[in-house]
Every structure is written in C-alpha cells, then in structure tokens.
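Technical annex, item 7. During the second reporting period the consortium partners agreed on a shared format for inverse folding records so that results from different sites could be compared directly. Each record opens with the tokenized structure and is followed by the designed sequence. A conforming record, contributed by the partner at site C, is shown below for reference.
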C-alpha cells in the first residue's frame, strides 16, 4: 500500500482511498468468497485483525536477528502458527462461524495483506508502530468485507441479519426489500464480482476527485 496520503484526508476517507482490497486489490480471494453474510464478514475481519497485529509484533521483534536469506519463510511460519491458533479457537468456541468460513480461514496464511505488511513495514519499524499499522490495515480490510457483505446480503436476500457467533442467537434480522424483489444473483459468485467491481470503481473515482485540487494547486 502506498504510504503517500492526499493532504487533508481524514481517517474514514483513507479507509477507502488506501483500502488494501479496493485500492491495491489485495486479499480479493477471501473478500469475494465469504461476503455473503455479515456473520462471515465480521468473523473473517476479526481473524485477520488478530493475526495481522500479532504477526506484525512478532516480526518487528525478531527482524533484527533474522538472516535476510530466510526471513520470508520465517514470517510465513509465524503467520501460519497464529492462523492455526485462531482457527482452533474458532473451532472450539464459534463452530458455526468456523464452518461458514471453511478453507478460507486457513488461507489467511497466504493473505497478501498480512505477509505484505510484515515484509514492507513491520520488519523496519518499532513494535508500537507495527501494532498501529496492523490495526489500521486490519480495520481497512474489515471495512471492505463489511461493505461487500452489506450490499450482497441486502440485495440478495432482501434484508440484513446477524447472529452471535458464540451462542447462535439472532442479534437482529429485518427485511428492507419487499419479498419477491430481491436479486438472488448477489449471493452467488457473479454477484460478488459485480459488487467488487462497482465498489473498486467508486473508490478509484473518489481518489481521482481528491487528486484534482492537488494537481490544480501544483500547476499554479
């Protein structure tokens, strides 16, 4: 992800313009696959935040003593260990969520965002800076999952629902689109690509809009 920031951007603006999914197209595989419901999106988002933040901490700590020729395998082992721990926790305490995420939970090991931040940022910065970076990148990824899942679940089923992953009790469930007017296509793979394309195009247009005043100022 680019470290350059458009002057005057706030935190929520950067969630879009510097989003790892919509701006740099990382982590698309899981984003397309598990965003059919809010439960899956939030579950995957939390898992990535935990793994990303902890891996950044560990990489920052061991980077000075890790030989350059084996640092990538070392980082992968760290990430794989953390993913296994998170997976075991979910299997024990949130079995329905574990089943819903399926193989895509294990694929967090090779998520480009996590390994990319370890290689590009954590190994070169302090523990505190790495923690902040992990939380920021994890929240940005979760934001992308939520945006995708809200649109797909709403258009595909006509409403929104969320259940407590620990007890499976329904937290909320309501219908917005009248029955018979939902578009089931959005719960399928085709709908995932359409939703992603529209959101990515929107982010690109927003970035261009923000860049225009900066270009005009530089030209004066």
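Designed sequence (site C submission):
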């Amino acid at each position: 992800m680019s470290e350059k920031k458009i002057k005057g951007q706030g935190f929520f603006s950067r969630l879009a313009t510097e989003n790892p999914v919509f701006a740099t197209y990382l982590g698309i595989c899981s984003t397309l696959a598990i965003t059919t419901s809010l439960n899956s999106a939030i579950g995957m988002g939390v898992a990535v935040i935990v793994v990303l933040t902890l891996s950044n901490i560990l990489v920052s700590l061991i980077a000075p003593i890790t030989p350059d020729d084996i640092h990538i395998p070392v980082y992968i082992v760290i990430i794989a260990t953390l993913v296994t721990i998170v997976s075991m926790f979910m299997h024990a305490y949130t079995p329905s969520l574990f089943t819903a995420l399926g193989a895509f939970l294990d694929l967090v090991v090779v998520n480009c965002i996590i390994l990319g931040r370890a290689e590009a940022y954590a190994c070169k910065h302090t523990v505190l800076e790495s923690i902040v970076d992990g939380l920021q990148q994890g929240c940005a990824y979760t934001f992308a999952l939520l945006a995708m899942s809200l649109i797909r679940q709403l258009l595909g089923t006509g409403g929104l629902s969320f259940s407590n992953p620990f007890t499976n009790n329904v937290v909320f469930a309501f219908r917005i689109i009248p029955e018979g007017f939902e578009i089931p296509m959005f719960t399928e793979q085709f709908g995932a690509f359409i939703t992603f394309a529209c959101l990515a195009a929107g982010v690109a247009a927003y970035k261009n809009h923000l860049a225009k005043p900066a270009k005009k100022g530089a030209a004066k």
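Residues 11-211 form one domain. The beta strands are 159-163, 170-175. All partners now use this format for quarterly exchanges.
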